[in-house]
């Protein structure tokens, strides 16, 4: 089953410390080697395109009312929800150790779609 992980933090959090970037890069490298990570990247400012009462509008982020922004994502192929949750806990643990005092949330979402084509 596939899960998408979003790492969320305050919009004014600033750049993460170099030690955290290095630790996350090492984690990503190992997850690719283990065959569970399908893709991962940081996310830039959002653009929201909205349909309201028949009118299409778009708003460039960051959004003033946002309490958190998604700073990055990872797409995993895991065996269970428990495994997905453990990956999220590991990401929180890295932030706790290497970016103390920063409030961070990790959101894990299962993906529902057609099965991945066999290679």
Overall description:
- This protein is α+β, with helices and mostly antiparallel strands and 119 residues long.
- Helices cover 29% and strands 35% of the residues.
- It has helices at 18-34, 81-98; strands spanning 2-9, 37-42, 47-52, 55-60, 69-77, 104-110.
- It has a 4-stranded antiparallel β-sheet with strand order 2-5-1-6. The chain has a two-stranded antiparallel sheet with strand order 3-4.
- A hairpin with a 2-residue loop joins strand 3 (47-52) and strand 4.
- The chain is globular and about 45 Å long.
- The model has no long low-confidence stretch (mean pLDDT 88).
- What is the global morphology? globular
Structural class of the helices, strands and pairings?
alpha+beta
Intertermini distance = 16 Å
Number of helical stretches of at least 4 residues: 2
Given as residue ranges, the uncertain stretches (5+ residues, pLDDT < 50) are none
Number of distinct beta strands: 6
Helix content: 25-40%
Compute the gyration radius: what is it?
A: 16 Å
Question: What composes the largest sheet?
Answer: 4 strands, antiparallel
Would you tell me the overall average pLDDT? 88
Beta-sheet strand percentage? 35-45%
Give the strand order of the largest sheet, numbering strands 1, 2, ... along the chain: 2-5-1-6
Compressed to H and E, one letter per element, the order equals EHEEEEHE
Quick overview:
By secondary structure, the protein is of the alpha+beta class. The protein is 29% helix and 35% strand.
Please describe the topology of this protein.
Layout: E1 2-9, H1 18-34, E2 37-42, E3 47-52, E4 55-60, E5 69-77, H2 81-98, E6 104-110
Antiparallel strand pairs: 1-5, 1-6, 2-5, 3-4
Helix pairs in contact: 1-2
């Amino acid at each position: 089953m596939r899960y998408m992980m979003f790492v969320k933090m305050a919009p004014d959090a600033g750049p993460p410390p170099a030690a955290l970037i290095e630790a996350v890069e090492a984690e990503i490298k190992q997850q690719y080697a283990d065959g569970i990570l399908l893709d991962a990247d940081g996310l830039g400012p959002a653009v929201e395109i909205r349909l309201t009462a028949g009118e299409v509008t778009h708003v460039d982020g960051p959004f003033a009312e946002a309490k958190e922004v998604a700073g990055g994502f990872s797409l995993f192929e895991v065996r269970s929800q428990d495994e997905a949750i453990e990956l999220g806990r590991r990401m929180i643990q890295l932030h706790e150790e290497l970016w103390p005092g920063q409030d961070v949330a990790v959101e894990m979402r299962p993906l529902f779609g057609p099965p991945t084509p066999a290679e």
